[in-house]
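Project channel, design review

CF: Before we commit to the Peptoniphilus equinus constructs, I'd like one complete example in the thread so the newer folks can see what an input/output pair looks like. Taking M23 family metallopeptidase.
RD: sounds good, go ahead.
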Amino acid sequence: MDLNSYYCYEEDILAPADGMIVKIYNHQKDSSIMKNNETDPLVKNLAGNYIIIKHEDNEYSFFGHLKPHSIVVKENEKVKRGQKIALCGNSGNTTEPHFHFQIQNKESFIFSSGIPICFENLQIAETVNHSQYDDRVLPEEKTHRDRCQYIHRGQTVSNN
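CF: and here is what came back for M23 family metallopeptidase:
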């Protein structure tokens, strides 16, 4: 399948908050789209091309599966929220173009723990027929006193 037939392929990836670029990997080719939803067996780096941004002590954002040679920032460069940093790709251990985003407590992708991400101004709805393709039990909804919204699998999410 042609990577360009995916809506997200080559879409801009933006910095979620101000910070400092601490790690970049930008040399892995896009993975092949395999049959039966399998991953490319020739992948050497599971995260593919990636960027790590340090925001505060013990808070780093990680972006993986970026398009080869699309990263437009450099290590030790300061970035601002909303600044373009790369393009969505299909590098690494992936079955189709997308990007992996997480907040973690250390610089290392492998030796860190994820931190819940607080979003604001989202429209969140249950994904129709989600249980037909994913039978895992969904987490219970939690209410928050502030405007913080957390997302998880089984939801359809959009901006307000």
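RD: helpful, thanks. The longest strand covers residues 49-56.
CF: The chain has a mean pLDDT of 89.
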